[in-house]
Amino acid sequence: MAATDTPPPAQRAGFWTALRYKYLPTHMLGEVLAKSWIDTAIPAVLLAVVLAVFAVILPGFFSPASLSPLARVTGEYILLGIGQAVVIIGGGIDLSVGSMFALCNFFALWLMFTLKVPVLLAMVLTIVAGAALGAVNGVLIGYLRLRAFLTTLVTLIIFRSIANLISTNYGARLLGDYAVHGEDILTFMGDGDLFGLPASFIFAIGTSVLFYILLTRMRLGWHIIAVGGSRRSAFSAGINLRRTVFLTYAISGALAGAAAYFYAARLTSAGATTGLGMELIVITGVVLGGISLGGGRGTVTKAVLGILIVMCIYNGMLRMGLESGASSIMLGLILLAAVVFDIRWNKNRHKLLNRAYVSPALVEMPPRVSIERGSASPYARNDRIAETRPIGLGIVDGPEDMILDEDDNLYCGTRTGDVYRFFAPDYTRHEVFAHTGGRPLGFALDRDGSLVVCIAGMGLYRLTMDRQVIPLSTQTNRGLSVIDDSRVRLADDCDIAPDGKIYFSDPTTRYEVSEWLTVALENRGDGRVICYDPATGRSHTAIKGLTFPNGICVTRDGQAILVAETWSARIRKYWIAGPKKGQLEMLIEDLPGYPDNINRSSDGYYWAALVGMRSPAFDLALAMPAFRKKMVDRVAPDSWLYPNALMGCLVKFDADGRIIDVLWDRQGGDHPQITSVREHKGKMYLGGFHNDRVGVFDLPGADPGWSGWNDYWGQK
Amino acid sequence: MIQAIRSLWDDFRGAGAAALSVPSMDGAFRPNQNLEEAPVALACDRPDNVTVAGGRVYLSSGARVLALTGPGTAEVAADGDAPVTAMAGLPDGTLAVARSGAGAVLAVDPQGRGAGRIYGAGMADITAMAFADDGALALAVGSARFRAADWRHDLMHPGQSGSVWLAPLSGAAPQRLAEGLRYAGGIAPAGPGRFVVSETWASRLVTVGQGAPAPVLSGLPAYPWRIAPATGGGCWVAFLAPRNQLIELVLRDRAFRGRMVAELDPEYWIAPMLRPSDQPLDPMLKGVQRVSGSEPKPWGSSLSWGLVARIGADFVPDFSHHSRANGKRHGFTSAAEHDGRLLATSHCGFVVSLPVDQR
Asked: A639, A662, A670: which to substitute to probe chain B, counting the most B Cβ within 10 Å?
């Protein structure tokens, strides 16, 4: 920082900057990174790059004459790769695949050419033989608990020695007679095509599908992943570790047998070098595909992609005329790079995601209205909420909203997912009315006296008076977005229209409820209002693109809903009936603070709780998204600039947006945060997302007979 | 060229000069609630500089100089037009008072050596003063450009125009000891002809005398302000506010800083604060909003803090007194020893008193 670094003249965001922040979908980067398929996308992109590179430097790489033999070999390697992937996902490693491959190759030739076993039966027997060889590994590692690396290294040597012995002594005699039982089938297995694809490749694809289903949909697959992820947890969960580990090696052996059978059919030779160095190619491929050597992470898709990459590179290098030693060096280097990348990626992925996810938007807030004490501003500070009495002090934790029934009992939600009932008249007795499991926020009282409650993380629910928790709406129609926006993420506040339709807010599709202040930092309009229709039981998104829509209140004439857009500090009006139906109007544009829940007042107006006031520093930061982005990147979260959500007030306004009255708590009062205000029979009840109580005070001049339920559903 | 590339790379990586890391409060700066729990010696409006002269405790509050007369009581010793920006006293009762835009005046001088004499009249605001052993008056000027009350502006520009002067008793023109400091918020004698000075925005203490200023204690977790000598050697340092990553970011973001300085009331800047941010328009950090019930958490990140530290004679921090993020007494601007007690002034309206040896 240079000492002469005086601040430059103030500059507003220019045209191009504004355009960039408005239209460049930077938020999608984080959303894409958060997808679970991103791990698979990396090897897929890598494969595309490899193919493109060889297409350029090796003319004719994609010609059928070049691809067909490659695909034939690749089919065999895919089988080996799947076997290796299963072992590695299960927390082990199988170095002996090449040797098993050589033995099985010999076995297959012996069956077909010497014993004249029918070709298809020979295939089955070869696979069984491979499984038996793998079972040797499985018994040693799974049941006798030997180390996977050393054990398979030893079996690599032993199997290889046996293969060498046999091929030296019997190799010449083995193929004395070329007649086999089922010549056509063997030719098809070795050299035949179906739809232009070699038989081994088709078999490998079929096997991939089978193992995809096994790993993702079947008990054994889940057990393998669990054992590889954490042996101790898997053991504690009652999984048979020994058997599971045993099975992974048996599977690897069986697939090596299958691969060897195709090799035997293709080449019908049993040389001493068969399968030599195969484990390097296979392990490189599997790791390159993104299967972690640590176990527990990986899919069949990744294994197949990795094998395809390695086979392309290997084949490309052969065609470029590299010596075989050089190819091995290249493979080794690729394996090293893949292992390093795997470790770094798994370690830093969530960091990258954290940095990329918050994507601040450019927001120019309207000028701030004065709140100065004693000024002529309608929002001038006062101390009119001076005397509050606590309800449930120390019992409730974070009553965001509360509601009172006709018997004056008070219901409120808490952070722990309970809905509490405090009994009238003194509210000293309480009970857990219902347990929801989510985070209960806004309430509404239906015609039949049941509670309709928004539960963050779950959706819109009904609590009947006999304590049933009934889901009403947990999903809406899917829109065009990277993130799955059909799920109701953060149901916040709701209200019921005269026709029974329930309108509720879902403030953001990008964050969970605990990050509601980070949404302010981002200030991107990704919230919506959803309408639930009890007649059809279905929901649809009524309004989109709102900035943290929060409080919802149906107007007295039943023609519109009032929607508080918290982090835009404004209130809008959405017509749900009448001639203007479907129109969205601005009602109050320049609130000095952030409106939360909205409810009706006894004198025909509406109450909004302002959860906090707009601070000049935060308003400026909103106009400078680059600053916010840098802050999220560089500054520890504890020091992030947040909107003020600890000092608010109550605003009474009419259906045309005129401010009627404003009530402030005194400095340092008992309710640092007011997220909800509800009038009931001459009293005002205050809720707060972080508060440890519900506050109540007498409202001078209020109608002592007025209740919310009566106003909505009573005889008028 | 290499420097330019490195600067770009650092900016991209958030390393080097672009790193926002700040020292943590640990070791001698381990937080406690001593300042929050200490008895109040006097409650008054924004006490600023406390000093002792001739056995009496004086403190400045706006344009007035108050003298403590008993527990919780004080009388007005002097009043004036401009805010008092610094004070210094001698055991014989001599008291020097500096006012914004008016230099320093020997307000009380029982020896008759020149009461009413003005030192450094033409200089920018004097932000701290200390008497040398020979009676000469050392003057610290925080900024050549801004008034003492506008220290936030100096931080945000950022200033490097602090200077230290030595005004001989004879009344001759002050002689400059150091310049180019990143603010000079406090000064105290440190041996013959030498002074220890708070180079505030650099978060370090330097000694000045003959020759270039020499850093003696760097990497402080807060912005050092006024310094007072301590019995047994060493000194007490009052700290304005803690360093914070967000402020470091603002200092490095020219565009944001430019608009903030141009458009916002300095009281609401993202800058060190002298009081807890509990007003509706204050900038608020995530850490401050870690609340359960109505109680903020003491360990939250905050733009304001209460901190007075005892620094040993070898300039190694010894121990410190704190008022943490949830405290009500923040912005300690000065401290002084009197009668076995340590008196410290909080901008929030408190003069607190602790035993000198309380740890």
From this structure: A639
